[in-house]
Specification:
Order of helices and strands: HHHHHHHHHH
Radius of gyration: 20 Å
Number of helices: 10
Low-confidence stretches: 186-192
Largest sheet: none
Helix content: over 70%
Length: 241
């Protein structure tokens, strides 16, 4: 009996995974509000009734995609903030990690970028909630140092939200750079400024499209670093007045 239950559970998880993957593929060219349930089930090869064994509706599926899309980035950036010393090191590590994440999971980043202000309320709220939790973690990391500089909690939280918004904006910029040159995806595994250059250099070796894509990625990375440096400089002088 337990073996049959295990087989059924494994099949159920496999179908659920297939529905999520199919929806993510279909959402590359449309918004969730325009996606039809039958489109998703037809892509998986299951009856529409089978969908409801996994999700209440497409909004529920969208919320699951939010959790999946932001979850890994959420933990990755938290690890960067906790593991790097010095502003320059954190900036380089953050930009490199975001670039690498976009290369690995472009469909997830595209989904978040499109649906953050999209037409499905439950999904918008889920994205906002995930980014709020992200900001909470960043604020917790900043708090010991900034409290020593007499930063009030509301200002620490404001700074954390600024960093989170910037990371999302940077991820979207990398995605757009890659979309302009789809054959130019760089190497993954970047962990610092030199690694970003290595990754886009690898893209450049792919020919004219790769070189153009590499140059676009370099521009995005350089701009992101400057913007984060500006935020960092402002942070150091915020309490001067």
């Amino acid at each position: 009996m337990s073996h049959r239950c295990g087989v059924r559970q494994a099949q159920k998880e496999k179908t659920r995974r297939a529905l999520l993957d199919a929806a993510l593929r279909l959402l590359e060219d449309q918004s969730l509000s325009s996606l039809g349930l039958r489109e998703v089930t037809r892509a998986v090869g299951v009856a529409p009734a089978a969908f409801y064994r996994h999700f209440r509706d497409l909004s529920d599926l969208g919320v699951a995609l939010v959790e999946e899309s932001l979850g890994s980035l959420h933990h990755m950036i938290g690890a960067i903030l906790a593991g790097q010393d010095g502003d320059a090191e954190r900036i380089d590590a953050t930009v490199a990690a975001v670039a690498d994440h976009v290369r690995r999971y472009p469909a997830h980043i595209r989904f978040i970028a499109r649906e953050r202000h999209g037409g499905v309320r439950a999904v918008r709220e889920a994205i906002a909630a995930e980014l709020d939790r992200f900001a909470d973690e960043v604020a917790t990391d900043f708090c010991p140092r900034l409290s020593a500089e007499d930063w009030p909690p509301e200002d620490v939280r404001m700074l954390a939200e600024l960093y989170v918004d910037h990371m999302v904006m940077t991820a979207t910029a990398f995605l757009e750079a890659q979309a302009e040159h789809p054959g130019a995806a760089g190497a993954s595994g970047a962990s610092g400024a030199a690694d970003v250059e290595d990754a886009v250099g690898a893209a450049g070796a792919a020919g004219p499209a790769g070189a153009a894509g590499a140059e676009d990625e370099r521009r995005v990375a350089a701009t992101a670093r400057k913007q984060l440096l500006l935020i960092s400089l402002g942070r150091h002088h915020w309490r001067d007045g």
